[in-house]
Design goal:
5 strands; 42% helix; 6 helices; five-stranded parallel β-sheet; alpha/beta; 156 residues; Rossmann fold
């Protein structure tokens, strides 16, 4: 019988997160606690005794990072799903501390998935604000919903 920590060759129960980026910082601890309770409930659920859990996250400020911190606290691995190449995506983090946190979380990811640029657009077009970049974010919004079994929504 496989151990709970061994996920080699097993299919994971995949979680994803959606929500606001601009949440009240004072709410972060409580929200992380609530997301942690969701993870804990699944970890002890007798219906899934040998099913590893996995989180998909864009590592964006707000909801994404809250879920990743809760996953890390529960020893749940996560995959970083980025809407565009890392150097372009980083332009959307407004502060140095946010960029540092993004880098730390990115380094902790089990894997990175960088969504391809839509065929009708170029890297130059998605590098600046506008319709092409917006479409990349729209594609990012649909990815976790498509590839997860549990969606955690964090709205403030």
């Amino acid at each position: 019988m496989p151990s709970k920590t061994s996920s080699r060759g097993m299919v994971s129960l995949i979680f994803a997160v959606t929500g606001h980026r601009d949440l009240c910082i004072g709410d972060f601890e409580g929200l992380e606690h609530e997301v942690g309770k969701i993870f804990a409930d699944f970890q002890k659920d007798e219906r899934f005794p040998h099913t590893p859990l996995l989180l998909l996250s864009a590592l964006a400020e707000g909801a994404d990072r809250i879920a990743v911190r809760a996953a890390r606290a529960a020893s749940i691995p996560y995959i970083a799903v980025l809407p565009m190449p890392e150097d372009l995506y980083r332009n959307d983090f407004g502060t140095e501390s946010s960029d540092r946190e993004f880098e730390e979380l990115l380094q902790g990811a089990t894997r990175r998935i960088i969504l391809p640029v839509l065929d009708k657009h170029t890297f130059e077009e998605i590098a600046r604000p506008g319709p092409a970049r917006d479409l990349q974010y729209q594609r990012l919004a649909t990815f976790p919903v498509t590839y997860s079994q549990v969606l955690i929504a964090i709205w403030g």
